[in-house]
Recover the amino acids of this structure.
């Protein structure tokens, strides 16, 4: 367990790095990417030709004797929620860093981007249970608190229950939110809860994975342990069938994950532990900004 001084030093490093990325690369892109996602009622005015008939205020129209339309405006502040998988599988990583390290950095960048735009940000930490809930608030001190918790989170649960996490989010956060779900998504049966969330919120899944999640190295006999169940077994990594089945399992999980997010009307990004997450986030934000043809 790191000391308080080590944690504070790491928090400061993450703050500096996140602010640099936010200011230099995401300046304006973050808010523009989510602009207009939340709309609030402003006033009514007389109906003009071309106004959307769905927004006619029939009560006012009846009272005034001619049609009136409701006007809406973009909500000045957004609510950003981070649903963070802190299950033991997040501690896996073979090349550059662990999944947990990458998730922590990405969350810090998103949180500082939110606070720079005067938005609220909150976190739900989950394993096979809800570990900790930080309700959305504004301000630098709040984000630094979130970063400290991201760095020091130690789950009590051994597995992953994404379904329970999304259900908790649906019940706990009433206002329309921008929800980032960060996990390796090595689980099943979360479609229904995700669909409910996608109907109300703007949901973005960030699938974080390691190169060895995808392919086994050819290194002979290897003893492997499931980080969540604790079960160990010996596998022959020189066996082509073993390597093929291992890769196939990853592909099937990826396809199921992609289908779940597609059916929920949600976005899905992929981040590998040895790749540059900044470029992936930039590309995503720019895709959001670019008008659809």
């Amino acid at each position: 367990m790191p000391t308080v001084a080590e944690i504070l030093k790491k928090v400061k490093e993450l703050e500096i790095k996140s602010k640099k990325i936010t200011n230099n690369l995401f300046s304006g892109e973050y808010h523009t990417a989510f602009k207009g996602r939340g709309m609030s009622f402003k006033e009514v005015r007389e109906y003009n030709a071309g106004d959307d008939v769905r927004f006619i205020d029939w009560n006012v129209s009846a009272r005034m004797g001619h049609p009136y339309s409701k006007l809406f405006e973009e909500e000045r502040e957004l609510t950003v929620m981070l649903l963070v998988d802190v299950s033991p599988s997040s501690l896996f990583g073979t090349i550059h860093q662990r999944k947990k390290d990458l998730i922590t950095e990405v969350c810090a960048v998103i949180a500082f981007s939110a606070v720079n735009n005067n938005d609220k940000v909150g976190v739900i930490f989950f394993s096979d249970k809800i570990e900790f809930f930080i309700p959305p608030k504004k301000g630098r001190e709040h984000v630094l608190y979130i970063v400290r918790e991201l760095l020091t989170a130690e789950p009590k649960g051994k597995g992953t229950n994404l379904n329970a996490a999304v259900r908790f989010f649906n019940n706990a956060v009433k206002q329309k939110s921008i929800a980032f779900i960060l996990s390796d998504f090595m689980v099943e049966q979360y479609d229904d809860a995700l669909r409910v969330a996608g109907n109300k919120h703007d949901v973005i899944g960030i699938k974080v994975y390691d190169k060895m999640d995808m392919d086994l190295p050819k290194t002979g006999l290897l003893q492997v342990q499931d980080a969540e169940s604790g079960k160990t077994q010996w596998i022959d990594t020189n066996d082509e069938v073993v390597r093929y089945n291992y890769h196939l399992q990853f592909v099937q999980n990826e396809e199921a994950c992609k289908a779940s997010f597609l059916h929920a009307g949600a976005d899905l990004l992929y981040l590998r532990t040895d790749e540059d997450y900044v470029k992936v986030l930039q590309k995503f934000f720019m895709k959001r900004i670019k008008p659809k043809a």
In short: The mean pLDDT is 85. The radius of gyration is 22 Å.
